[in-house]
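Q: what sequence does this backbone want?
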């Protein structure tokens, strides 16, 4: 039972990009913790990051057929601009949790709107990188007992 972690543009710079906003953990740190926590929950995690909208959409489409059962996504700046990303998530009809490391509602007004939120089962913002693990735990619970 696989859960996919998707990270959008600029999240490859975690740990060095605005650490006062995003913290000091790198994307590799986030992915490692996500994979470890998934295993502890009896799940398999896959991780994918791209700075390209089309690559993220292609990965979401692939999730329909590769055994992915749920998606945790931090769309980065595409949150506020991408109808196409939203439509891809809606099209695959998998459980989705949208994650933001910072509290987007305390930031610039353009960050207050999300195209993704309308198709997500939940939204987590402002918990730092712990938000990824909270999303994972929620989805694992939603999916039910892991197979043995």
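A:
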């Amino acid at each position: 039972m696989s859960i996919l972690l998707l990270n959008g543009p600029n999240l490859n710079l975690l740990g060095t990009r605005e650490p006062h906003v995003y913290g000091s953990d790198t994307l590799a740190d986030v992915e490692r913790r996500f994979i470890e926590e998934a295993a502890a929950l009896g799940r398999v995690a896959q991780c994918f990051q791209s700075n390209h909208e089309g690559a993220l959409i292609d990965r979401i489409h692939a999730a329909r057929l590769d055994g992915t059962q749920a998606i945790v996504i931090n769309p980065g700046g595409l949150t506020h601009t991408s109808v196409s990303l939203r439509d891809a998530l809606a099209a695959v009809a998998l459980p989705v949790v949208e994650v933001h490391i910072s509290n987007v509602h305390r930031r610039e007004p353009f960050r207050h709107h999300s195209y993704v939120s309308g198709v997500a089962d939940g939204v987590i913002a402002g918990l730092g990188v712990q938000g990824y693990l909270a999303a994972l735990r929620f989805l694992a619970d939603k999916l039910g007992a892991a197979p043995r």
